[in-house]
DNA sequence: CTGGATCCCACCAGATACTG
DNA sequence: CAGTATCTGGTGGGATCCAG
């Protein structure tokens, strides 16, 4: 199941724990965890409305992945019409905390990155024109 | 240039700074930053040897992205044969520090994730068989 | 030695249609 | 309401060949 070719690649870092890092690199996972962190409990359609732009499929898939990894708890109430609740697990909250500090750091530095890019692009459009 | 549809998506988190998060989600970027963090300065072929499994193309591309974002400095010595040095910038070192703490956290919790997955898979192979 | 340029495939996100 | 099933276009990334 999946791509588990991470065992021999980690020569540089002690352990990369791709399982977890992939979630953090995934746009929808980050969004969902953030939003679930703000609301304690949400239903499928509520999530769909809050995460602007996500497709129904990606919501399902991402939610399932997060559940599988133990970050999100999915509770089904067997009624008609169906009623399903999603909330963060304790592990999910821990992830959120860590994500937050990272996201904060990232946004504090995104200006530097933006400037670096402009400089780079400028440099390279010069050599292109020259 | 590129995909900049991140402006309206950040309703949940104050700011997602995808520019930076994408690097952390990218396997090769993480590896390169880690390795460059250990060696101060490395040449193209040295990097290629150290990052087991990377293709020549991905090394070039990833290096270029890291340079463009201001995390890596590329210094060319105009000699024959070409001699190119790569090293982390101060911003790159900052990224490394932050990445490290995240990677450490991730690896401390990857067992929990692994167990969650096994539990999930067990649950779902049951319903499948039942 | 350090890449640039191409070809090409495998995989994934997005849209659509259908179901309990 | 909360999904599943299916099709498809775009793209990330490996392999390969070429060049300064």
From TrEMBL, chains A, B:
<dbReference type="InterPro" id="IPR036390">
    <property type="entry name" value="WH_DNA-bd_sf"/>
</dbReference>
<keyword id="KW-0805">Transcription regulation</keyword>
<keyword id="KW-0804">Transcription</keyword>
<feature type="domain" description="HTH hxlR-type">
    <location>
        <begin position="13"/>
        <end position="114"/>
    </location>
</feature>
<dbReference type="Pfam" id="PF01638">
    <property type="entry name" value="HxlR"/>
</dbReference>
<keyword id="KW-0238">DNA-binding</keyword>
<dbReference type="InterPro" id="IPR002577">
    <property type="entry name" value="HTH_HxlR"/>
</dbReference>
<protein>
    <submittedName>
        <fullName>Helix-turn-helix transcriptional regulator</fullName>
    </submittedName>
</protein>
<dbReference type="InterPro" id="IPR036388">
    <property type="entry name" value="WH-like_DNA-bd_sf"/>
</dbReference>
